[in-house]
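F.,

This is the one I mentioned.
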């Protein structure tokens, strides 16, 4: 993706072009092409989700932050790890479907390990079960990205007593997905897998890019604690 001035209209056009791809390969190809300009472009959108998720985790995590191991799912270029580093966390494992995004994350020096994993298609490594103090996924839980069912894998990868932090958008285009996500999260709570610590509704999540919305769209941050077996 050639460098163009990252005005709001140009960034909007880039993101809308992603919606044209329907296959997994097309999605990955898009993110591979976007990796170089991703950080600058989402800054134009006033994309607050990484900061909001990090704040939620930091508010409730009471263990040894330097020793804690965090799994950053759909880590992209490393925006979430960068925020969590500011809160004293220092051991990050990242996964993403885009090798180009992972390369940018690798260059950040924040991660001890990075793996290419296509969520919803590739299984997470078996040895990751009950392995992480915190599992976080920011941005990928939305329509056209990863299926809702991946949240069960996130829970499996979390240590008992550990935390899972998730975000999603609450705008019109994502309402059906969000309803399915909310239902699955409640179902897993009823099954005794985890308990809800907090859900934070955020009015000004990021600038709207769809053709029928303007201003800012809303979003939500979920924090769950995995129950002891």
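My design for it:
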């Amino acid at each position: 993706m050639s460098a163009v001035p990252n005005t709001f209209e140009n960034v909007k056009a880039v993101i809308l072009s992603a919606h044209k791809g329907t296959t997994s390969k097309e999605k990955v190809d898009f993110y591979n092409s976007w990796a170089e300009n991703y950080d600058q472009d989402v800054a134009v959108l006033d994309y607050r989700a990484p900061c909001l998720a990090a704040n939620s985790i930091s508010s409730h995590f009471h263990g040894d932050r330097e020793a804690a191991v965090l799994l950053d799912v759909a880590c992209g270029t490393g925006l979430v790890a960068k925020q969590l580093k500011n809160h004293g966390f220092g051991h990050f494992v990242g996964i993403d479907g885009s090798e180009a995004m992972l390369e940018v994350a690798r260059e950040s020096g924040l991660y001890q390990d990075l793996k290419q994993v296509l969520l919803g298609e590739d299984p997470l490594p078996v040895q990751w079960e009950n392995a992480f103090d915190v599992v976080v996924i920011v941005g990928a839980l939305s329509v056209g990205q990863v299926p809702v069912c991946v949240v069960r894998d996130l829970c499996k990868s979390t240590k008992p007593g550990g935390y899972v932090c998730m975000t999603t958008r609450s705008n019109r285009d994502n309402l059906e997905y969000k309803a399915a996500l909310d239902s699955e999260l409640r179902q897993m709570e009823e099954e005794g897998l985890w308990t809800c610590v907090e859900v934070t509704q955020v009015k000004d999540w990021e600038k709207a890019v769809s053709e029928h919305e303007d201003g800012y769209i809303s979003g939500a941050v979920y924090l769950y604690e995995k129950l002891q077996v």
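The helical segments are 8-18, 24-34, 38-44, 49-60, 79-86, 99-108, 150-157, 175-190.

Talk soon.
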